[in-house]
Write a structure and sequence with these properties.
This protein is mainly α and 90 residues long. The protein is built from 4 helices and no strands.
């Protein structure tokens, strides 16, 4: 069982990942963590736990997409936290 950050947001994130929701839906959920004062490191840790618990495939791909937005390995329009990820896509 992965760690709990904010239970209702965690549930929404897990449901979105399981449904293979689009990037904008995932970003909206991640923005809720950010607005609640959760750090990028906390969310990245949760996503890494989820990734370890899954097999390769579409669910892992969705987790990696969310992780990219958390760590900054995405375009600036999808990035959620500023100042994370030293090598970011532009």
């Amino acid at each position: 069982m992965p760690q709990t950050i904010i239970a209702d947001i965690d549930r929404d994130l897990l449901a979105a990942l399981a449904a293979r929701a689009g990037l904008l839906t995932l970003r909206t959920i991640l923005l809720r963590y950010h607005a609640s004062g959760v750090t990028a490191a906390q969310v990245a840790s949760l996503l890494q736990e989820l990734r370890l618990a899954t097999q390769e495939g579409p669910l892992e791909d969705a987790i990696l997409d969310a992780l990219d937005m958390v760590t900054g390995w995405c375009g600036p329009e999808l990035r959620v936290w500023d100042g994370v990820g030293g090598n970011r896509a532009s």
